[in-house]
Amino acid sequence: MRRGFWTGGLCLLLCGFLGSGCVVIEQTQKQDLAGFSIVGADGKPEEHITVSNYGYYLFNLIPICCGNTDPDSSLATAWFSDEVNLPKVQGVLINEVKARGCQVAEIQPLCQSTCFFSAIPFIGNSLGIIWYRDVQVSAVLVRPPHQPVPYWQRVQQQTRRVAK
């Protein structure tokens, strides 16, 4: 009975790792920022974008799995690779900014890590075997007043209006 409990727990943990770790890009659209201005920025805010990557680490040092920040890879999860760090996530943000043809007006990073067993009373981080690490970078993108909207973005905006 006891052996089955541990085997089942390890299988459940392994299944959790197999489906975990991803890079997420969330954004708001221009109409959500209507009437909003940023002090010291040239132009009007185009959108607010947040790039997030998370993963799991052994003893908060050895990467197990995390989101893959490589834009050329078709895999969503990177195994045994340290992709959850500020330079990698900022690289994803910079690629998104360049693709949209905008400038960054405000940028805010957030880095955090948590032990899996930190919620258990009297144990806390003393069992710091498996850790969850998360890095987020948030930015407001601004299009300068003299820069036109690229053709592909105008077509995309028109198709959204037609679909509504």
What does this molecule look like?
The model has no long low-confidence stretch (mean pLDDT 78). Helix content is 27%, strand content 34%. The chain has one domain. Strands 1, 2, 3, 4, 5 and 6 form a six-stranded antiparallel β-sheet that branches. By secondary structure, the protein is α+β, with helices and mostly antiparallel strands.
Total helices: the number is: 3
Order of helices and strands: HEEEEHEEH
- Main pleated sheet: 6 strands, antiparallel
The chain-level structural class is alpha+beta
Low-confidence stretches: none
Mean pLDDT across every amino acid position: 78
Shape: elongated
What oligomeric assembly is this protein in? single chain
